[in-house]
Specification:
This protein is mainly alpha-helical. The chain is built from 7 helices and 2 strands, in the order H-H-H-H-H-E-E-H-H. It has a domain of 103 residues: Arc Repressor Mutant, subunit A. The longest helix is centred in the first third of the chain and has 24 residues.
Length: 160
Amino acid sequence: MDHKEFDSRTHLGFLCDCLSREVKNAVNRGLKEESGTNNTPKNGWLLAFFVRQTKPIFQSELENIFHLPKSTLADMIQLLEKEELIKKVPFEEDGRKKQIVVTDKGREINLITEAQIMEVEDCMTKNISDEEIEMVVTVLEKMQQNVRSYKSYITIKKED
């Protein structure tokens, strides 16, 4: 393959990556302005997950749910604890286990985060019809499935 072929192509992966970074940056700017915290969208999704749980949550279960390495999740949880958005408390049925509980401050920040995400998504989809949005979602989901199957026979060892 020559450079001309590469250069003449629209690189969708690059566009998706750029859009993702723009969305994250926009949400971060809004969160910093609205809440004064250093909560990131990724931490916001984790906090939102915690807020919605009706059963006790344990850190050990999260790796499979979020498909993130243990160390990354531990860092995220540590930051949420430091910001006093969650706390770990002994589990009633087994005091050796610690369950994750969202604090009142965490619930408040979650509402601000969700509002900020909605605001950015509304801005992002301005002047785009519902039909166009449905088409984008359909295409992106198909692309995601295609990429997941790319060399799926190769397993990559996760960081512990």
